[in-house]
Amino acid sequence: MNGPLSVVTIVAALALAIWCLARAGLNRAPSRFDLAAAMALSVLVAALVLVAVAGLFDGSRPSETGTFIGYLITTIAFVPAGIVLARMEPTRWGSLILGVACLVLPVLVLRLQQIASVTGG
Amino acid sequence: MAEPSSPARPRDAAINTGLGRVLLFVYGIFALSASARATVQIATKFAEAPLAYVLSAAAAVIYIAATVGLAIGGRRGRLIALTSCTIELIGVLVVGTLSIGDKAAFPDATVWSGYGSGYGYVPLVLPMVGLWWLWRHRER
Q1: Which residues on A lie below 8 Å from B45 (Cβ)?
Q2: Long-range contacts made by residues A8-11, C-beta under 8 angstroms, separation at least 24?
């Protein structure tokens, strides 16, 4: 859970967040590029979640397994939910939705790492 | 880069479009996180801080109501959102003040503790933005 994949995910999410927030500030609707970038980020997140799920079956589970699984489901669905809403809103506010989604995602990943680091019990 | 800027917003646009959709998204996040938090707290350690956990659950219900109100829109949705944003603002101010003044009653954090400092003060700002948005879209 603490591997390079989560670092890459966090950095990519923050970079995309800055980009989308700037687009919203410049009064631009989400472009095809923005949506494609968000989808690429979703794929990255999905890979991260799959690695975490695989980790659940190799012995050391987080002590709060239920919370961990809840966070995993939220994390994998989060950016796609933002994309769906952003597509419904072809204005600057759609860019803001993508920006917020990309800004909150690193928090989810950090919380996942935090919960994963407390094992046993 | 001949991209058109988004057009000006009509004054009678629905509350669940534009910035309203951003609010809907953020309220949805809070509805989810507050209810998940309250569920875990009440299920695993209710006896430790019953007041804080009941408040957590109440906050979760308010966020869900605000999300639903913003989502359905119209006169009824606006009323639901207005009510829940108002309760939310009062809640974050009262709980925020109490959690700083009376630590014994709040040994464990809720969404509203310390004026929502655990959530980047978004719980404090969100109802204000929500109320402003609803006021801007009042019936006239």
Answers
A1: none
A2: A8/A44, A9/A41, A9/A44, A9/A45, A9/A48, A9/A105, A9/A106, A9/A109, A10/A105, A10/A106, A10/A109, A10/A110
Cross-chain residue pair B40–A66, CB shorter than 8 Å: yes
Lowest mean pLDDT among A14-23, B77-86, B91-100, B119-128: B91-100
For residue range A88-115, what is the model confidence (pLDDT) as tens digits? Answer: 999 999 999 999 999 999 999 999 999 9
- Between CA A18 and CA A34 the distance in angstroms is 12
Of A28, A82, A91, the CB nearest to B25: A82
Q: pLDDT tens digits for A40-54? A: 999 999 999 999 999
ipTM for the assembly: 0.90
Q: Can you give the pTM of this predicted structure?
A: 0.89
Torsion of CA A24, A30, A31, A35, to 10 degrees: 130
| Residue A44 and residue A4 in contact, taking contact as beta carbons nearer than 8 Å | no
Of all residues in chain A, the percent with pLDDT exceeding 70 is 97
Report chain A residues whose CB lies below 8 A from the CB of B5: 27-28, 92
Q: Output the six-digit token pair for A95.
A: 């860019």
CB-CB neighbours of B114 under 10 Å:
19
Distance CA A40, CA B120 (A): 27
